[in-house]
Amino acid sequence: MVSSSPVAARSAKAKPSPKAFGQAVRTAREKKGLTQAKLADKAGLHVTYLSGVENGQRNPTLSLIAQLARALGLKLSELIALAE
């Protein structure tokens, strides 16, 4: 039997990859006119960690994603939506 629940429908969609999320962070950062160093400072991260996020080499926790969103002046949901 095929489920028609919203949860099943969401699970069937492709999840954002670390690479797609990193590109979303980079795009938002550049749109705000911020350097990696400035965004890292505003988010309380080391610049090499932020670089790894932007390059898809790091898979940040939800709390770090929230820190990045705040530093970019975005809602958490807005930043995640950019990666979808």
Descriptive account of the structure:
- The structure is a single chain.
- The radius of gyration is 14 Å and the shape is globular.
- The protein has one domain (16-83): Orthogonal Bundle (434 Repressor (Amino-terminal Domain)), CATH 1.10.260.
- It is 65% helix and 0% strand.
- α3 (36-43) packs across α5.
- It has 84 residues and is an all-alpha fold.
Based on the model shown, name its key terms.
single chain; 84 residues; globular; 434 Repressor (Amino-terminal Domain); mainly alpha; 0% strand
Gross geometry: globular
Alpha-carbon Rg, integer: 14 Å
Order of helices and strands: HHHHHH
Helix content: 55-70%
Overall CATH class:
Mainly Alpha
Number of domains: 1
Major sheet: size, sense and barrel closure?
A: none
The CATH topology assignment is 434 Repressor (Amino-terminal Domain)
CATH architecture: Orthogonal Bundle
List the total number of helices. 6
- CATH homologous superfamily (4th level) name: lambda repressor-like DNA-binding domains
- Work out the number of β strands: 0
The amount of beta strand, in percent, is under 5%
End-to-end C-alpha gap: 28 Å
Structural class: mainly alpha
Average pLDDT, rounded to a whole number, is 89
| Low-pLDDT stretches | none
List the helices and strands and how they pair.
Elements: H1 6-12, H2 18-31, H3 36-43, H4 47-54, H5 62-71, H6 76-83
Helix pairs in contact: 2-6, 3-4, 3-5, 5-6
Quick structural overview:
This protein has 84 residues and is mostly helical.
